[in-house]
């Protein structure tokens, strides 16, 4: 397994995603959740986020994120679109998390207020430390 400082890489996650027992695509496409429902799932044991109008249960991905789950923790239950645009504009995030897609967001996303997104630009996210 490919690793970054002891953590499996996103590529390794992609290689292993077939083991994930997710929601079938046709079910996810026809299941709606509100931002309030997503917000109810904000723990390490049950973590949902929204990204580009879709709802994802990223619980299984937390240990796979190359920068570790701590960088993701502020976003548990929130929309991650802006964070991904800032920190991962070159990465096909949607492909990585597609196996975790569980439904569609009904209504506006819950945005994390007061977060310093510029700080994501100055971090080496592969190591989870300042650049």
UniProtKB/TrEMBL annotation:
State a GO cellular component annotated for this protein: membrane
Q: Which residues form a coiled coil?
A: none
Q: Which keywords does UniProt give here?
A: Heme, Iron, Metal-binding
Task: Identify the SUPFAM superfamilies for this entry.
Answer: Cytochrome b5-like heme/steroid binding domain (SSF55856)
Which branch of life, at top level?
Eukaryota
Alphabetized Pfam families for the sequence: Cyt-b5
> What molecular function terms (GO) are annotated for this protein?
heme binding; metal ion binding
Instruction: List the InterPro entries.
Output: Cyt_B5-like_heme/steroid-bd, Cyt_B5-like_heme/steroid_sf, Cyt_B5_heme-BS, Cytochrome_b5/Flavoprotein_Rdt
Family in the record:
Belongs to the cytochrome b5 family.
Recorded hits in PANTHER family, A to Z, give:
CYTOCHROME B5 REDUCTASE 4 (PTHR46237:SF1), CYTOCHROME B5 REDUCTASE 4 FAMILY MEMBER (PTHR46237)
**Name the record gives this protein:** Cytochrome B5, outer mitochondrial membrane
What broad taxonomic lineage does this protein's source fall under? Eukaryota, Metamonada, Diplomonadida, Hexamitidae, Giardiinae
């Amino acid at each position: 397994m490919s690793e970054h400082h002891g953590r499996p890489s996103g590529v390794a996650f992609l290689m292993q995603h077939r083991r994930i027992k997710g929601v079938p695509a046709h079910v996810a496409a026809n299941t709606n959740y509100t931002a309030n429902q997503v917000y109810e799932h904000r723990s390490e044991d049950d973590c949902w986020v929204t990204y580009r109008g879709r709802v994802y249960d990223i619980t299984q991905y937390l240990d796979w994120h190359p920068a570790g789950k701590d960088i993701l923790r502020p976003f548990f239950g929130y929309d991650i679109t802006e964070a991904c645009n800032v920190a991962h504009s070159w990465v096909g995030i949607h492909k990585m998390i597609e196996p975790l897609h569980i439904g569609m967001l009904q209504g506006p996303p819950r945005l994390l207020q007061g977060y310093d997104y510029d700080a994501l630009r100055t971090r080496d996210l592969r190591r989870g430390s300042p650049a």
